[in-house]
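INFO  loader      accepted 1 record
INFO  loader      residues=255
INFO  predictor   begin
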Amino acid sequence: MKQDKLKEVAGYPDSMSGRDMHYCPGCTQGIIHRLIGEVIDELKIKEETIGIAPVGCAVLAYDYFDIDMQEASHGRAPAVATGIKRVHPDKMVFTYQGDGDLASIGTAEIIHAANRGEKITTVFVNNAIYGMTGGQMAPTTLLGQKTKTTPRGRSSEETGNPLKVSEMLSMLDGAAYIVRVSTHDLENINKTKQAIKKAFKVQQQGLGFALVEVLSTCPTNWGLSPRQAMEWLEKNMIPEFPPRVFCAPEGVDEL
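INFO  predictor   done
INFO  writer      dumping tokens
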């Protein structure tokens, strides 16, 4: 379908390119991309927004947004975002990172960016597995969850427990807004959009570091159909990673 017809039928945001995405069927990263695009349009910040693409499944994010984008080395998106924001403090800067990128090789980067109170926004996609590299255990993999590197299921004795990124970052003084949301149904997708919008507004007002953790699916590496993946997320990930607001500036609900 040509781009002009696609936009007429699907109504994709102006801040998105309208290109076909490479994500697997049932992966909700495309939904998350769209929500970011809608927020950028609604806040009318397309011309002042700069996104940082990671290494991981979203490595081609720059193909899908019609805004300035910068590629970062694996895990280093917060450092790149910090540099851009400090050079261009009038710009809206966000990173888009998966759990392998942010919670493994990039753990130090995200902790120190949050601790410094960098005025950036991070969208953290948590699907509890390494997606792009073939389904290995991630820091957020659940106990008992089978992956390519935990074929008998993850064991706390061997590899520790699932890393609770939002809980950890919310304890840092520089963190202004930390929230966890999900994409497993329409109600929660709408909540995800509102959380992303608030995170951008926190940056607009210079209140500090903001992170939105989004629970997502990986049907291919989970070995499930798209529908089964949604059900697995709700049944297994929600109890382990309950959606909630961990910290927020006063008056954030009015933003």
